[in-house]
Amino acid sequence: MEVTLNHLKRPEESAVDVSRRLQKRTRWGELFIQTFLFLCGAVSIFTTLGIVYELGKEALLFFQMPGVTLVEFFTQTEWQPTVGRFGVLPLVSATVVTTVIAMLVAVPFGLGSAIYLSEYASEKARKILKPALEVLAGIPTVVYGYFALTTVTPFLRIFFGEALNIYNMLSAGLTMGIMIIPLVASISEDALHAVPNSLREGAYAMGATRLETALQVVVPAALSGIIAGFILGFSRAIGETMIVAIAAGSGPNFTFNPLQSAETMTGYIARISGGDVAYDTPDYNSIFAIGLLLFGISLILNIISRRVSSRLREVYE
Amino acid sequence: MNRGVVLSETSNLSVRHQWGKFFQGLFLFSTVIGLIVLGILILTVVDKTFTLVAVTNKVDPATLADRPLEELSAEELRQILRDKLRPARLRTIERDMGPIAQMGEADLTALIMAEIVKPTTRASYPLFQSLTRRAEIEAEIRKEYPDAQIYFKAWLSWDFLQRSMATNPDLAGVRQAIKGSLLIILITILFAFPIGVGAAIYLEEYADKRNRINRILQTNIENLAGVPSIIYGILGLAVFVRALAPITSGAAFGMDAGSGRTILSGGLTMALLVLPILIISSQEALRAVPNSLREASFAMGATRWQTIWHHVLPYALPGILTGTILAVSRALGETAPLILVGASSLINKDPQSVFSFFTALPFQIYNWTVRPQPEFRNIAAAAILVLLAVLLSLNATAIVLRNRLSKRL
Q: How far is residue B92's CA from residue B350's CA, in Å, rounded to a whole number?
């Protein structure tokens, strides 16, 4: 000890003093910065708590209103809060129909596009196509809503004629599917890209064609990531607001016929809050009850998606 | 797996290759279908922005003065207003929009058009239709509106960008919407950027990943990124508009707007919305900084913060900025939260401060799209072109920035 510290010694100090001086000490400035940065991170916790608290509180008020029961909420097929009908099913059915249509578009095209980008496209083509898909993802949903109403619906009417309502779930769902393709494609592509080349080379060595390699070797190996992408797309479709608010119709309608107009959960929230909704009315509180339902569904889907992608992940070295 | 069996049992190689070609075509189609739709979408919008119109005026502007309105001086324009409008109407206008004595020529002309000339678009025909069937359309218009003027109209014009919101689609513009959007974005960046980057620095540079609190923090941020935007709108309504009304309405600062449905509420809501996206992209940028850089700095005796501030952050900055631009473009296009927070389509005064009521570009598009009169679709299309132009240039900047960054690494 004595020897190693000699060169650090000041004239009046003993070796013990030196070692104390060089000990790790609290740097208040550093600590302050670290605390501040932690608080920045904590904002996100407060956001979550805020969402849960506000949605929960107002939804509770909603369910305490005379005439509202949980059973009615989840089983009745009529939603007219102003006249005391509180069955959420018509809003849920519309959400289900539009979401299923959207997934029917987004899953095959998203996966196909991911396979093309990862397995077929040259480096040059990838460099052009990927940013192009990102542009597609960056278009505001209100623009897609406009497109659904002014272009997709008239186009579909060529096939369905008057049977297709001007506001209808089919057009909203199809447009939503197009909107979600880039999301599904991008996540699936990441998953496919992460599959090691040795697997592909092994398949080629066994005489498989490129298609057989892609569908029978690479896709199964990347399945967890692909499914996670599907689930995220699904969650996105459920929460999408502007397309359905513009193109699917305004007015709860308990139907599974995509040619008809019906209002989704998000569409209802947007319509009711569009005017200056007065606080503490059935309308106001119902926004929160439906919001809570929506938040719950999307949270569960998010969690499942992460579980799937980590559970099913096969680790290749 | 079933098809797999069939394929491998097929010994005929050419059949297998044909399948391969077929599917390759399908995959390529899946990739470009989005782009095809994007093309159709832009064509649709252009188609509706430039149309052949039949316009009738209530009062022919030629009868108002001996020269065209554009050549008159401000005083002459004011005289026309005083002559042609009833005093009561003039007083109402002055109460809403300020005294006409202080208005410039552009505003006065707009006022004369809105109050006296009152041009009305009787019919409008999309661009491509008008180009291919012009003669037919003109004959149709002549029959129905004999006194109408027929001409090509660009709904997107310099005037459109400068005019105020109005109930007449021929006279409506997006000035307040653009200003509202810009102010909202400004507040969003002001709050989201420092907090987002701060949180990312904490999670990447300080947080012990084994610590439970830090793990919860990370999971929570990833979950928040997946929460639908309308939920943020509900949160904004409950917290910023209602609970914090004394602050967001400006009452605490002596400028009471009357309620919390202000630009500040909108901006704060958007800040919460983009925060998770910003944190995650900043984290990725920080993760891309090689560890050797940090270690070298520590070895020279720098503290953790000195290392971050002088070495890590400058290196990660292009990546962080790319993420920020993408977050901003997301905030610029979001509509649902603004509906909840109380954007209003009845705004015809410029926002004076962050405590003003507001409208924003995407909200205005929504509002015009859902109106029944077809002319509103035309100005909605024009507004969409404005929004897309801004967003595409933002995205292009982000992509260029990212390419530069990947070259350097």
A: 18
Of A166, A165, A183, A163, nearest in space to A102 by CA: A183
Q: Are strands B50-56 and A85-86 parallel, antiparallel or unpaired?
A: unpaired
Interface check for B182 against chain A (CB to CB < 8 A): the answer is no
Contact A219, A233 (CB under 8 A): no
Global pTM reads 0.87
Assign a CATH topology to domain B175-408: MetI-like fold (1.10.3720)
- The full set of domain ranges for chain B reads 47-164, 175-408
Residues 225-244 of B with CB under 8 A from A: 226-231, 233-235, 237-239, 242
* Domain residue spans of chain A: 85-314
Nearest of B179, B158, B180, B159 to residue B171 by alpha carbon: B159
Q: Which two tokens stand for residue A61?
A: 């008020």
Gap from A312 CA to chain B (nearest CA, Å)? 18
Q: Fold for domain A85-314? A: MetI-like fold (1.10.3720)
A211, A215, A303, A307: which to substitute to probe chain B, counting the most B Cβ within 10 Å? A211
- Integer Cα distance of B311 and B295 in angstroms: 11
How many CB pairs below 8 A link A and B?
A: 274
Dihedral angle computed from the Cα positions of residues A160, A166, A171 and A172, in that order, rounded to the nearest 10 degrees: -160
d(CA A262, CA A253): 5
Name every residue whose Cβ is closer than 8 Å to that of residue B378 and which is 6 or more positions away in sequence.
Answer: B48, B49, B51, B124, B155, B169
Q: What is the pLDDT along chain B (409 residues), one digit of tens a residue?
A: 444 444 455 568 888 888 999 999 999 999 999 889 999 999 999 998 888 888 888 887 777 777 777 778 888 888 888 888 888 888 888 887 778 788 877 778 878 887 888 888 888 888 888 888 888 888 888 888 877 788 888 888 888 888 888 778 888 888 889 999 999 999 999 999 999 999 999 999 998 888 888 899 999 998 999 899 999 999 999 999 888 888 888 888 877 767 888 899 999 999 999 999 999 999 999 999 999 999 999 999 898 999 999 999 999 988 899 889 989 999 999 999 999 998 887 777 788 888 888 889 999 999 999 888 888 999 999 999 999 999 988 888 887 887 776 665 5
| Cβ contact B38–A136 (<8 Å) | yes
Q: Do B195 and A241 touch (CB under 8 A)?
A: no
Rounded Cα distance between A217 and B247, Å, is 59
Question: Which of B238, B366, B399 lies at the smallest CB-CB distance from A58?
Answer: B238
Within a 10 A sphere around the Cβ of B373, how many other Cβ atoms? Answer: 11
Gap between the Cα atoms of B291 and B293, Å rounded: 5
* Residue found by looking up tokens 């592509």 in the block: A189
Decide: helix, strand or coil at residue B123: strand
Q: Given an 8 Å threshold on Cβ–Cβ distance, is A38 in contact with B206?
A: yes
CB-based contact A47:B275 (threshold 8 Å) = yes
Could you give the CA distance from residue B321 to residue B278 in angstroms, rounded to a whole number? 9
Residues counted in chain B: 409
